[in-house]
Amino acid sequence: MVTPPTFVAEYEVSTWASFVSPRTVTLTTVAGDKLVIGGLTEAEATELATPTGNSVTYDVEQIQTTATNACEGYLWTATDANGGTGWDLSSEAAGGQDWGLDVLRFSDSDGFGASNQSQSSAGTVALTTTADNSAVVVFVGDWDAADGSSRVWA
């Protein structure tokens, strides 16, 4: 049996309601930690650059480009080989729309598995995990800013 990863912390930009570039979050990590980074934009006119920081390699897992009047989503993963206290992870944006970053830190993880994306007004996405006891991370960009209370996670 695979030991489940341990969720350690979330690091998020202070506001998503402005266009500022670059955006930076300050992390504390331990060597070997797994990072999942989500970047979301207000609209299709803004493109995000791959994050940088702590001499870590950030792998792009998904880029959800959209049609007119919809959010764009970016998903990166990274293994922090260095660890450290108070280091900065940054990304830059081009385009002028509101955007932000959210970083999730996991320890005791064997790695990254499957990822998927959906652009659907129904909000449906299928994901098959690749190992028992997986952590599942979801980032949602809601251009219409609808009430999320009706969302169902199954």
How is this structure best summarized?
It is built from no helices and 9 strands. The chain is mainly beta. About 25% of the residues are buried.
Properties at a glance:
0% helix; 9 strands; five-stranded antiparallel sheet; 154 residues; two-stranded antiparallel sheet; mainly beta
Annotate the secondary structure layout.
Elements: E1 6-12, E2 23-29, E3 33-41, E4 47-48, E5 59-64, E6 72-80, E7 84-91, E8 93-94, E9 99-107
Antiparallel strand pairs: 1-9, 2-7, 3-6, 3-9, 4-8, 5-6
What does this molecule look like?
The protein has 154 residues and is mainly β. Helices cover 0% and strands 38% of the residues. The protein has a five-stranded antiparallel beta sheet with strand order 1-9-3-6-5, with no helix packed on it. The relative contact order is 0.31.
**Poorly predicted segments:** none
Number of strands: 9
Neighbour order of strands in the largest sheet: 1-9-3-6-5
Envelope shape: globular
The tally of helices reads: 0
Largest sheet: 5 strands, antiparallel
Q: Approximately what portion of the residues adopt beta-strand conformation?
A: 35-45%
Q: Helix/strand/pairing class, anyone?
A: mainly beta
Radius of gyration, CA atoms, in whole angstroms: 16 Å
Helical content class: under 10%
